[in-house]
Structure formats: C-alpha cells, structure tokens
Amino acid sequence: MRQIPVDTSAASIMAAQPPQPKVANRQTGEIALDRETGAKLMTVDVMFVLDGNAEIMTVVIPESGVPADLAMGTPVALTGLVARPWENEFNGQKRHGISFRAVAVTSLADAGAKAA
Question: What local confidence, expressed as pLDDT, does residue 115 receive?
C-alpha cells in the first residue's frame, strides 16, 4: 500500500476529540487490530492548522501510542504521520479518500509547562 509521509513541522495540531477505539465492525462492535502487530487501534480526531486554514482529520494510532489522559484542546505532536490513499466499491458505488496513520500522538501541554 502506498504511504505518503506528512510533514507537520509548520502546522499547529491539537486534539479535537478524546481518543476512541477504532471499530472494525459496527454491527458486532469488534475493535480493529493492527494487521502486523495485533495491537488495538485507536482513532484521534485532531485539528490541523496550517497557513490560517483548519481541518479536522481522524488519525489511526496503535493504543500504545496514545496517552490515556489526552484531552480535547491539548496541543499535540504526531510521530510518523503518513497519508494512505484508499478506494473501494460498496453496493456498486466507488468510494475513495485518504486515511491518516501515525505511530504515536504526544501531548505538548506538558512540554510547554516545563519550559515556562
């Protein structure tokens, strides 16, 4: 699968929603697992601000890379962020988009408090 590294160095990023388990099957409630490691996957909605434009994007992160106390509005850094184009067909309708995946999300709130 193609992966495109995302440079976040010029952007401001903050948690828009608390982390949630990524659901693999909405009917059964089955939680998604990483295909390679078997790790439970989480989704984190973040606000990505660059050049005065803000976008909300959902990032999939292994549970081990998500701090338990990550709160809405917390400034964060995304480690190893990549974009993955996807396409599928469901009920005869073609759909496509871009999904985002990261190795970890780290709160920058603690770093700012320590620097002050």
Answer: 46
- pTM for the model stands at 0.86
CATH code, 19 = 2.40.50.390
pLDDT tens per residue, range 74-92: 999 999 999 999 998 888 8
| CA distances from residue 104 to 16, 19, 26, 28, 32 in whole angstroms, order as listed | 16, 12, 25, 27, 17
The position carrying tokens 């193609």 is 2
Task: Let me know if residue 51 belongs to a domain.
Answer: yes
